[in-house]
Every structure is written in C-alpha cells, then in structure tokens.
Amino acid sequence: MPNSPVSAWFLTSEERFAAVERLRHGQTGVRCTKFKSSQLKEAILDVKIWLVALMMASAYTVNGAVSGFGPLIVSTFGWSTLHSILFQFPLGGLCFIVILLTGWLGSKFTNIRIFMLIFTCLPVIAGCAIIWKSEWSYRAAAPVVGYSITGFFGGTVSLIITIGMSNVAGHTKKSFMAATIFVAYCVGNIVGPQLVWSQTKKDHYPALWLGLIICYIICICASTTLYFVLRNENKRRDALGLGDESERAKLAFQDLTDKENPYFRYVY
C-alpha cells in the first residue's frame, strides 16, 4: 500500500500531480514520517483536539449500549429472539444510508459538517426518549421505531472523524489526533454498557436512555463550541490578507501544523 500519492503505483503521472495539488490546496502536505516533539506539545494544548475527543466519546456511548445490547433490549419490547435480531437491520440500514448521505453532502457543500452533525444528534435523542417513555407492551411498535432511528448515530460518528482529521496538519499532530479519536471511541464503548442496569428493566432502563440523551446534548454543545472556534480562527486569518501564492505553495509541504501555517483554513 503506497504511503503517499507520489508513490501510488496505480496512478498515472498526471493523476499523481493532481493528487499532490489537492494536498497543496488543502495545506496538508505530503506524508512525513519524522516525529516532532513540538507538534506533540501543540496537539496536547490544542482545545480543538479535546473538543473532538469529547464529541467522539459522548457520541459513541450509543454503540456500546444500544448496538451491543440491541437484541436483548428489543426482546424486552415483547418480540421473539428472531424478531429481535431482524430488527437490527433497520438500524444498520439507516446508519449506512446516513453515513453515505452526510459524506456526499459534505463533499458538495462547504462548511456544513457541524450543522449536519448537530442535526444527526437530534433523531438519536428523540429515539432514546421514545424508547424510554413509550409503553413496552407485547410486540410494542413505538420503542422499535425509537430504537431504529438511533441509527443516525452513524452519521454523527463519521462526521466527527472527518471534522477531526480535516482540521489538523503536521504528521505528528495528525497522528495524535487519530490516536485521540480512537481512545475516545474506546471510552464511549466502555461507558455505554455501564448504563444498562438489568434491575431497572421494569422502569425501561432509565439510566441508559437518560445517560445517552445527556451524552448527545454534550456532543451538541461541544460541536457548537468547536464551530465558533474554527469559524473565528478562519476570520482572523482571512483578515491578515495573505495572498502570496508562491509562499503558500512552499509552506504546503513543510510539514507545518495548522497553527504554524497561516494559509491553512479550517473546515466545519
């Protein structure tokens, strides 16, 4: 597997040039494998990275809880084991569609990713509320509908990853961001199952649904904060009036971080 467009054997010389030009335009540069302690320090002190980590940890609790215990939870709605397994298909299908749709929209329109992220959080909150407050009678339909629409979390998570990796530059800093997202993903998967208390089944697992609703409210608040941080930084950089294209092209391949490169623009 090639580690950069330059070494991509399956691309023609023209395609390699175009790929490198895209990297230059985005000011992310070609892959550099040298570890830089200065970039690590900057990453640790960068509030954007920790906001993304908070968003990922809070958003992925639903996977550890609802997806992990899905058939068990659906069976408590009065459905058979087979039906409980079959009802995983609507959730998975919706998750797949939302991921593709948000990815396509994000590639077509500029700076709508955080708006889409917040939008995808809302059905998850609604789904948790429906499950929690609806009647769990024999073969109840309402909680199954609520369970299915929690599949919007797939779009939320994919957007968090995209936003996180698109808003850092520099090899060491990007590696730190990727590692932080992975750790946050693991934290969400660990925390989620802890909210499922079997002794509260007759009360519709209140700790689970309330906990997930709180987590997604946290995700919305963190993403809103990130939106203003990124937008204000872009405005500040635009006000500098830098327009030297030769310098811009030169800095694109210097393995500079997003903070070091004044031509870098954040996407949100």
TrEMBL record:
Keyword Disulfide bond found: no
Keyword Metal-binding attributed: no
Pfam families: MFS_1
Domain of life: Eukaryota
GO cellular component: membrane
Ranges that cross the membrane: 49-73, 85-105, 112-132, 144-164, 176-196, 208-230
Membrane topology (UniProt): Multi-pass membrane protein
Localisation: Membrane
Keywords: Glycoprotein, Membrane, Transmembrane, Transmembrane helix, Transport
The protein's name: Major facilitator superfamily (MFS) profile domain-containing protein
Species for this entry: Fusarium oxysporum f. sp. narcissi
